[in-house]
Design goal:
By secondary structure, the chain is mostly helical. It has one domain (about 1-150): Up-down Bundle (Four Helix Bundle (Hemerythrin (Met), subunit A)). It has five helices and two strands. Strands 1-2 form a two-stranded antiparallel sheet. The longest helix has 23 residues, at about 130-150. It comes from Epilithonimonas ginsengisoli. This is DUF1569 domain-containing protein. It holds the Pfam family DUF1569. InterPro entries: DinB/YfiT-like, DUF1569.
């Protein structure tokens, strides 16, 4: 969880640069990537609280194994589901609001059973530890894109 906490600090540090774009890297702004990460974090952390650990059914998948062990997410190949696409142009206020909620939910996740889980639409069930790894990898992917946007 401390890794995600560090990522949240990085997101906060990028707030002054949310309007920066670089179409050679991404069609979306730095702020879009930050808000997208926070939407995924919030939804997944909330999802952990809404499942019954008795229903957890892990299944092996090569895609899941490669992603979780190597962190490979191809850029521009996977489209975010609609509920994880920022509706408006991200603002510092919208990002800070999501950030606050993320911190609360991350803290609450510490007390959840280890078999609390989410079901990823492509990769299946993730227990709490795997969910946190997924969230770190996903956020890291978008923070790298934000860094590349800012390199222009």
């Amino acid at each position: 969880m401390e890794n995600i906490t560090n990522q949240l600090q990085k997101i906060e540090s990028l707030l002054p640069k949310i309007d920066v774009t670089n179409n050679q890297v991404s069609k979306a702004s730095v702020g879009w990537h930050l808000e997208h990460c926070l939407l995924i974090l919030n939804s997944s952390l909330k999802g952990l609280t809404m499942t019954d650990p008795k229903d957890y059914k892990p299944k092996f998948s090569v895609k899941k194994f490669v992603f979780l062990n190597f962190g490979l997410i191809p850029r521009g190949k996977i489209r975010a589901p609609k509920q994880f696409i920022p509706l408006e142009v991200p603002t510092q206020e919208s990002i800070l609001k999501l950030m606050s909620l993320t911190k609360e939910r991350l803290e609450a996740a510490k007390n959840l059973p280890e078999k609390s889980f989410i079901t990823h639409p492509f990769l299946g069930d993730f227990d709490k530890k795997t969910t946190l790894r997924f969230l770190w990898l996903h956020t890291n992917h978008h923070l790298k894109i934000a860094d590349d946007i800012l390199k222009k």
